[in-house]
Amino acid sequence: MSSENLNGSLETSFQNTIATVQFGHPASNSFPRALLNQLTTEINSLSRDENVSVIILKSEGNRAFCSGASFDELLQVENEEQGTEFFSGFAHLLNAMRNCNKLIIGRVQGKAVGGGVGIISACDYVFATPESAIKLSELAIGIGPFVIEPAVSRKIGKTAMTQMTLAPHEWKSAEWAFEKGLYSALSDSVNLDQDVENFAQKLSSYNPEALFEMKKIIWEGTEQWESLLFERAAITGKLVLSDFSRNALLQFKK
Predict the structure, then answer these.
(1) Coil, helix or strand for 95?
(2) Which of the residues 54, 62, 146, 187 could staple to 192 if both were Cys, CB 3.0 to 4.6 A apart?
(3) What share of the chain is helix, strand, coil (3-state, %, to 5)?
(4) What is the model's pTM?
């Protein structure tokens, strides 16, 4: 299945019981709301697909993995309701990944910012390259990583999440992210795809019922996210309307 438009692209391919989902957008693989919705729908669909045992999540190109929310759409938000609705897109996606019956392998080829870090955090196992630096830039644009914080903190701990959040202009290296547990393995760019494929094939050879039960155990204790992430979306939706946020977004777009 494939869909392409001004809101980005989403394509899913299948190899035996492995589904590979690739998203893309001309603006450093950022996420407008329509693309968030498409990816959420696709994850939910694959979760129900009995012919799929493992999902690989990747982005197009060989540079940025994901630059987070679309700044163009953020600037179009006119009231709290629209703001909450936009950031709820990330809440829906993270919950879909968390609730997915299939294990999700992240393939990260480059830098990730903001919501992109949240998506990586919601993967169950992540391969990345030495170029895959990360940054939580939200405070610099007048908001905060409120929606993705539970996912990020769950992976790297509250202390490391705080270090990233309070230094919004500072990149953390791929090695730092690996040491903190965000990345499960580091591969050079040449071997990344083969390493991901080999791991996915091995994982897909295991008992599907065992994988399903393991997925449930991995995500134990996150049931409150069903409401928490949307409460956080409301906070962000309000803050993005501030003069500080508007001016900062305009500066970032220059």
Answers:
(1) helix
(2) 187
(3) 50, 20, 35
(4) 0.95
